[in-house]
Design goal:
alpha/beta; 6-stranded mixed β-sheet; 4 helices
């Protein structure tokens, strides 16, 4: 078996999103995706989690001997936030007295250096509106790495994918992904589709150049 010399590529997903009435929920899709990505050589490891502290603790434990090149999170999100079982991770988590701050600081030290690492939030809407811009800006500056996220509701199609490097300003419109007339209220995002901007599918394993 070939051993990669690069950093780890890790994925965490929300394991709490079960279906109703015996039907599979989104957790089942995310679990299948993680197994597929691992089989295709796109991930080194993955874990389903029920809270953000669990996710951060696993990432720290998994990276003791090898730095991290990429972290993907598959779960729910909204403007400027990513969720595990309705527990929000947002810019407030970067505040000095936040209970997760120490974990995030420790994780920052586990990333490959030089701004080459990537956080990819494969969640609905996280980079949309002014709140999404603020989240992308704060996250990249805190971690000193790139971050990628979406401005639309995502599923098999995943639209509005944008990435930001440390020190850059978001270049995508704050109204991208919103329904007409929603710019001021930002209550309803649009569904992804093949004709929407910066669209990939759930089978894409990399952020395309220029996104």
């Amino acid at each position: 078996m070939t051993v990669r010399n690069e950093g780890l590529r890790l994925m965490v997903y929300d394991r709490t999103c079960a279906g109703r009435w015996g039907l599979p929920g989104l957790t089942a899709s995310w679990r299948v995706g993680s197994v597929l990505y691992r089989a295709l050589g796109r991930l080194d490891d993955w874990r389903g989690v029920a809270s953000w502290p669990e996710a951060l603790d696993w990432l720290l434990a998994r990276s003791v001997e090898r730095r991290i090149e990429e972290i993907q999170y598959w779960g729910h999100g909204t403007w400027g936030r990513v969720l595990v079982d309705r527990e929000s991770l947002d810019v407030q988590a970067l505040a000095p007295r936040h209970p997760w701050r120490a974990r995030l600081e420790a994780l920052r030290e586990r990333l490959v250096p030089g701004g080459e690492a990537l956080w990819w939030f494969r969640t609905c809407e996280t980079f949309g509106t002014t709140r999404g811009h603020a989240f992308a800006r704060a996250w990249t500056r805190f971690f000193g790495c790139r971050a990628a996220g979406h401005t639309y509701v995502i599923g098999p199609w995943q639209s509005g994918l944008h990435s930001l490097a440390p020190g850059e300003e978001p270049s995508w419109p704050v109204e991208e992904g919103l329904r007409p007339g929603e710019e001021a209220r930002a209550r309803t995002a649009r569904m992804s589709g093949p004709r929407e901007p910066n669209t990939i599918t759930c089978l894409h394993g990399q952020v395309p150049p220029g996104f």
